[in-house]
Amino acid sequence: MPPVDGAGCSPHNPTDHPATPVSPRKVLPLLQRANLQVAPLLADFIETRALPGTGIDAEAFWRGVGAIFDAFAPRNRALLATRDRLQAQLDAWHRDHAGQAIDQAEYQGLLREIGYLVAEPADVAIDPENIDAEIATIAGPQLVVPMLNARFLLNAANARWGSLYDALYGSDAIPGAAEGPGFDAARGAQVVAWGRAFLDEAVPLARGSWTDWDGSTPALADPAQRVGRRGDSLLLRHNGLHIEIVIDRDHPIGATDAAGVADIVLEAALTTICDLEDSVAAVDAEDKVAGYANWLGLIDGDLTASFAKNGRTVDRRLAPDRDYVDASGNAFSLPGRALLLVRNVGHLMTTPAVRLADGGEAPEGILDAIVTGLIGLRDLNGLGRFTNSRAGSIYIVKPKMHGPDECAFSNDLFNAVEDLLGLARHSIKIGVMDEERRTSANLAACIAAVRHRIFFVNTGFLDRTGDEIHTSMEAGPMLRKGDMKLAPWISAYEDRNVQIALAAGFSGRAQIGKGMWAAPDRMAEMLATKIGHPQAGANTAWVPSPTAATLHATHYHRLDVFARQAERAAEPVASLDDLLTIPVARGVNWSDDEIRAELNNNTQSLLGYVVRWIQQGIGCSTVPDIADVGLMEDRATLRISSQHIANWLHHGIITPDDVDGAMLRMAARVDAQNAGDDKYRPMAGRGMGSTAFAAARALIFDGAAQPNGYTEPLLHAYRLKAKAQD
Ligand SMILES: CC(=O)SCCNC(=O)CCNC(=O)[C@H](O)C(C)(C)COP(=O)(O)OP(=O)(O)OC[C@H]1O[C@@H](n2cnc3c(N)ncnc32)[C@H](O)[C@@H]1OP(=O)(O)O
Ligand SMILES: O=CC(=O)O
Ligand SMILES: [Mg+2]
Prior knowledge:
single chain, TIM Barrel, 23 strands, binds acetyl coenzyme *A, binds magnesium ion
């Protein structure tokens, strides 16, 4: 694809919101569309791929787009200015109270006075219409996938159904690992035993165990759980989730099984978030259009990916629906793919893909709403090979909103996009990530602002931790990252999210979601602990991979989340005082070793993530930590590590020399960890000659000044530089 982009990004300046950012890069001529200047690649994508078939005329479309930017770009800028004002007021207050214990009454008085805390509305009741069952009435895993990776995207869409046998055999869910070059029969036997025990729990037989089943028609303890057949295979359902017991005596596994069971296939990722935000590196029109084109391919149903794997070529496409017959012989089908949701970016960044009438870059979140909404319209108009939303909705996940005014802004923006596209009011639904402190503290008001279109609230634990650190940057040095997980604000945050959502009527209407399992290789630990999410009353929770989706699905068979929600609905809402208790480490004397360990750990994960982002445009990857354990790192985990180091630097727990020393040591370590990657360029020894190293350093040394501690402005600027160098 030819590189067609407007200009460099305009990193958000904390003290100023220029309408016309200065571009450091040479640009290809943009095309005039209504009162906008549009990158040719984007104009072409819209006019030749996204609009055709919708009945919307290109000229009218661009006129409408121009009008939306006219109306919403100034509002967007004003909201960002409010963020900065609040942050400055908080910083000043903490500086005035340096070293003092925080008096919650006085502190909350300040928060109300400056407009950080608003009056909570009573009796908020959500009433979204046309919500798909995968969201409203069935509880199950939610997979997240970077939008810029077609191979993963297709896999994620198809992860609605997952092989339990493969997930167990290929992960550490069963201790040890497969041995030998071929099939490890001993491990296989453990997998089969695990599977049978699972069936005994989820779909028990009237008598005896599935272990002893001989393949004859099974008598279930609850006969209603048997809902169909496909050939010899059995389709069962429990807690709304399907289980297919695959019978195939010709299959190598089925041939050795007394009942001919070749696999147990679980309904797994009910929903998949296709992510345009923190798991991708999209800095210019070229990147944005690549993401939009993948979303279009998913919705139109023609996305494909061809790649070599294990010595053969794999052609991947979307899975068709699955056909069954019921007990009366009537045919029916079940969706073959997850219900697809799209995560837009937040309100912060601008994009060089579109320039406004005044020459300034357009707010990227507004462009995302328009383009992903337009592509969603194609689904509602039946233009795709498959149907995504059977209920007729477009699901946009909106991250990083700070408080009710920003939610109201998104609501109004979605109204405007619906009008532009001729969509019925509230066809575009919103998933609100509760991942900024001002949203957690005003959650009922945030929900109220979008109550007619909300389809989820989700605790985005990682960003939320980054915002916790940044908001109170001046209050003192923060707890160590590991200790932060035990701080009172976190449990109050998780509890309040569920309790406030239940009080607003989410149960049976919308999702209450929990955060990401960020250790993709640690499935045994996930199986042991992530059941805590449904136990907390969450009817969905994030997983990083199809394997994790399949294994996490078993948790939703172990308890009935909707019954759990009914129990939790009676609880009082957890304390706002706890939520607002700042995790500063008062009276803690860390040893030199503890400080060094914390710094090494943070610089290592920061460098490991940033180097791939800057050099290769990889927005999410498994980054080996200092102990070589692979952890999912995305922009939210980077926000935590960069803010944590910046905070300790700011309060003198570490010095600039300490940071530089750790950075140099860890650069060598990260280089060694990436030695097998031929696209990788080492950082060690090149100092500032390495753009990635310079970016990582800026994220720390300029970290305290970044808007709300976000990493996007610096990442975009350095990635654009790296692209230009390439
Ligand atoms: C704080 C937040 O915002 S969290 C949300 C953002 N995070 C995410 O979106 C994480 C999504 N997950 C991922 O991107 C990946 O799982 C990673 C980067 C963590 C790990 O990727 P890798 O190291 O390449 O994974 P690994 O080598 O273990 O497995 C690769 C296989 O799993 C599949 N896979 C892994 N993750 C996913 C996924 N999220 N969706 C679909 N398929 C996936 C790949 O398609 C591949 O299979 P294939 O060879 O048949 O295509
Ligand atoms: O977006 C998710 C998060 O944890 O942040
Ligand atoms: Mg986040």
